[in-house]
Amino acid sequence: MEITACHVAKGRPREFDTDSALTAALRVFWTKGYEGASLSDLTEAMGITRPSLYAAFGNKEALFRKTLDLYQREKLDYMGKALDAPTARGVAERLLMGALEMQMSSCDPKGCMGVINSVACGTEAESIRAEVLKRGATVKQGLIDRFERAKTEGDLPADTDVIGLTAYLTALLQGIALQAGGGTSCADLKALIDTSLSCWPSK
Predict the structure, then answer these.
(1) Number of neighbouring beta carbons within 10 Å of residue 185
(2) pLDDT tens per residue, range 134-188
(3) What is the CB neighbour count within 10 angstroms for residue 14?
(4) What is this structure's pTM?
(5) Which fold has domain 76-203?
(6) Domain locations along the chain
(7) Yes or no: is domain 16-68 CATH 1.10.10.60?
(8) C-beta of residue 91 within 8 angstroms of C-beta of residue 83
């Protein structure tokens, strides 16, 4: 009996690049949100079967958490770098310009993956929403700590409400993502950033 290529390949596990598959899953979740992304959407984009998805990444929730890790590591790396700016205003400028640069990229979906998934409201998505909010709270605390340090160093006025300042900056970052998703131009968003920074508290 002649052994064909089909006979040899039959039964073999499908091989794929897990990094590429995870990147593809990230784009699906980023575009459609956790609730809107079906397993069929994910497997089609990742180029794998459902058994392969489960074997490599676990269930849908586990896959989402891995894509969220990837999002923070590769797309939000500018946030960690911003905290190293020598001044509080420099921190804000790096964050806002980093957000603008990401939203103007032609390679990624528009909007903020965190914002998109923080409004997930189904029973299945409750743990996802909680995870996104928890990570967002960690980022906000990092900003609060940095601005508190700026007050101590005299870089911010002594009466600065750092919690309010952090909330203001967070709202700007979310607004940039939402407006970019709605088609606002780079020039208009840059004008928003310039105006916002001109209101930055100074001694």
Answers:
(1) 11
(2) 888 898 999 999 999 999 999 999 999 999 999 999 999 988 988 887 888 999 9
(3) 11
(4) 0.79
(5) Tetracycline Repressor; domain 2 (1.10.357)
(6) 16-68, 76-203
(7) yes
(8) yes
